[in-house]
UniProtKB/TrEMBL annotation:
Organism: Glycine soja
EC number: 3.2.1.39
Keywords: Glycosidase, Hydrolase, Signal
Domain of life of the organism encoding this protein: Eukaryota
GO process terms (BP): carbohydrate metabolic process
Catalysed reaction, written as an equation: Hydrolysis of (1->3)-beta-D-glucosidic linkages in (1->3)-beta-D-glucans
Enzyme class: hydrolase
Stored InterPro entries: GH, Glyco_hydro_17, Glyco_hydro_17_plant
Protein name as it appears in the record: glucan endo-1,3-beta-D-glucosidase
MF-aspect GO terms: glucan endo-1,3-beta-D-glucosidase activity
Signal peptide from the UniProt entry: 1-24
Family according to the record: Belongs to the glycosyl hydrolase 17 family.
Length: 390
């Protein structure tokens, strides 16, 4: 069927008005999620991961591809999952809607509705990255994926988005002074215009750990870890910030506002703290990782906004679910996990159903044990129901 450009954008406007206020809750249940990276050779099976997530009551997950085994394992779990079109496929997807349609039919549609796929990320940290060709194809790729979802009548339940790194900003201190880089604006503006039309939030990867690691002499680690500290005062907005995380979120809001997108929601697509690092990676300790992630979880569970956007509830995906032993780069890259490869927790931040692994603890309930327990309970319930029926 042929659609004129005018008809297409009228449809975009319709979807924007209809779904902009309900998309957030559909894509993101509550305020807390995790990134499930798998650059490792020692991780538990996806089926075991689903068991772990349920035990920890984590209901939102992002993955960096559309792995068949993972999507099959999440079937019937009720966990909202966001998949990703890998960076290396963006050029092909940008060529035409048919390429996007083929990708969705292969990687998304077969798993619906059993697997709760609620988002498709178009690449990861494209703008501000080193491949300028990807900057140019980001918007066409996003539009093609969205158009394909529309044709399949899935655009109302699967959100198209893309996460950005802090590299898209020229500056972010104080929060009110934040602006996008000039060289990125020709690509960011049309992307934001399109996302505004279809009701997509702005996703930012915000890492106080990286800011502190790069400048430990001038950044108070207590400010980065949500601990008691003098904080900072933004003279323009007359707002006080006692933690860097909310300052980074409000910096994104300030940059969006300067471009006319003051109604766009900001969601943190990645944040976390490394539990181990190289000698030159300040702050990368188990104690600091536990403090950051525990305090962050407390903040998110309050379901409140930021100083600059008090009515916009803060939502964030934590990086990451597991330590990933095959990730390249400094030691910290391989030590962001909330959980160890065997499924035990890296440090206690209050998850229920799991216990920390230590020399004094031998009561860890293994995946096999949890699965056996579920099976035993299910069998007992079934037997009881049979007796009642008789």
């Amino acid at each position: 069927m042929f659609y004129s450009s005018t008809s297409f954008f009228l449809c975009l406007l319709f979807f924007s008005i209809t779904f902009s206020h309900v998309f957030g809750d559909k894509v993101f249940t509550g305020t807390y999620g995790v990134n499930y990276g798998r650059v490792a050779d020692n991780l538990p099976s996806p089926e075991s991961v689903v068991t772990l997530l349920k035990a920890a009551k984590i209901r939102n997950v992002r993955i960096y591809d559309a792995d068949r085994q993972v999507l099959s394992a999440f079937k019937g779990s009720g966990i909202a999952i966001s998949v990703c079109v890998p960076n290396e496929l963006l050029k092909e997807i940008s060529v035409g809607e048919d390429r996007a349609m083929n990708w969705i039919k292969q990687n998304v549609e077969p798993y619906l509705p059993g697997t709760k796929i609620r988002g498709i990320s178009i690449g990861n940290e494209i703008l501000g990255g080193g491949d300028m060709e990807l900057w140019e194809v980001l918007v066409p790729a996003a539009k093609n994926v969205y158009a394909a979802l529309q044709r399949l009548n899935l655009a109302h339940q699967i959100q198209v988005s893309t996460p950005h790194s802090e590299a898209v900003f020229a500056n972010s201190y104080p929060p009110s002074a934040c602006t996008f880089r000039e060289d990125i604006l020709p690509f960011m503006k049309p992307l934001l215009q399109f996302f505004s039309q279809i009701g997509t939030p702005f996703y930012i990867n915000a890492y106080p750990f990286l800011a502190y690691k790069n400048d430990p002499q001038h950044i108070d680690i207590n400010y980065a870890l949500f601990k008691k500290n003098p904080g900072i005062y933004d003279a323009k907005t007359k707002l006080h910030y006692d933690n860097m995380f909310l300052a980074q979120v409000d910096a994104a809001y300030a940059a969006l506002e300067k471009l006319g997108f003051d109604k766009m929601e900001v969601i943190v697509s990645e944040t976390g703290w490394a539990s181990k690092g190289d000698d030159n990676e300040a702050g990368a300790t188990v104690k600091n990782a536990r403090t950051y992630n525990k305090n962050l979880r407390k903040l998110l569970l309050k379901k409140k906004g930021t100083p600059y956007r008090p009515k916009m509830v803060v939502r964030a995906y934590i990086f990451a679910l597991f330590n990933e032993n095959l990730k390249p780069g400094p030691t910290s890259e391989r030590n962001f996990g909330l959980f160890k490869p065997d499924g035990s927790i890296s440090y206690d931040i209050g998850f229920t159903g799991l216990v920390p692994s230590s020399a004094t603890t031998s009561s860890f309930l293994s995946f096999k044990g949890i699965g056996s327990l579920y099976a035993m309970v299910s069998t007992s319930c079934a037997a009881f129901l049979l007796l009642v029926a008789l």
